[in-house]
Amino acid sequence: MSTLGRHASGRKKLRDLLLQQDNRRCADCNAPDPKWASANIGVFICLKCCGVHRSLGAQVSKVLSVALDDWSEDEIDAMVEVGGNASANSIYEAYIPEGHTKPGPDASHEQRTKYIRSKYELQEFLKPALRIVSGKNSKQNSLDSSLKSTSGSKNTEDLVEFIGKLKVKVIKGTNLAVRDMMTSDPYVVLNLGQQTVQTTVVGSNLNPVWNEEFMLFVPQDYGPLKLQVYDHDTFSADDIMGEANIDLQPMITSAMAFGDAGMFSDMQIGKWLKSHDNALTDDSPVNIVDGKVKQEMQLKLQNVESGELDLEIEWIPPLEL
Ligand SMILES: [Zn+2]
Fold this sequence. Notes:
Blueprint: H1 3-19, E1 36-38, E2 43-45, H2 47-55, E3 63-65, H3 73-82, H4 85-92, H5 109-121, H6 136-141, E4 162-174, E5 186-192, E6 195-198, E7 209-219, E8 225-231, E9 239-246, H7 249-258, E10 267-272, E11 284-289, E12 292-300, E13 308-316
Helix pairs in contact: 1-3, 2-5
Bound molecules: zinc ion.
């Protein structure tokens, strides 16, 4: 089977599991319609409980977004093997001693944290006979738990639900400003919500070509994609070489209005218009190309004497569940 085919069948397994009756409610607080999962524990959880799980660290609970994260086959198979919230809870909540009550959907962060830590980290609710082997679970999980969970912030007070992903390709710069004696060592920094990524530094070049791609999660209350160009300086702070804000609304609203772009042939579905108060050098159409929603643009860098930047962005909607 092709990689793509395997991927699709893994996705289907995950979707079928999520649609199972017991997985329509959060394993920890019964909130409806959980969209997150702990891939090592094997439970589907809500956004609020997800925040607590994340605070326990990936070695205890490795949280992934069902619709937005890239799941490995192993992670999907592990979820399938556990069999869902009911069978996980038959182990993790086998015996809830006095003094502990399962939180409801409206429980406070403190109540939730106390319960979730007792349930998974301390494993206090296992059948008495099983408790002696507690810790066994977290061992296998720490294997590949490193930095995979890129979605969302670490701060549990500051939880964000994401509406999709944005692939940003930084193509090239043209006629950038001089910051060293004769030239500059430019790189580009992109910022969306709490995520920041940057390109490599191109040495001594005012017309750098990057062709580098980045994936960013788009929060529900997304603002502009912010872009800044800097000159890398070995001996002092890096100098700014201009900036620009990219309005994502034309792309995201038209993409959402059209729904599944794979159903349409190539066509234009929207446009970000050049105006005196944005950085566009020309109108930037939003197109469906090969079933994908893409937008190319050239930006005139702001707050700098010269420089343009070519960029392509692509909207990646959450997977249908
Ligand atoms: Zn919950």
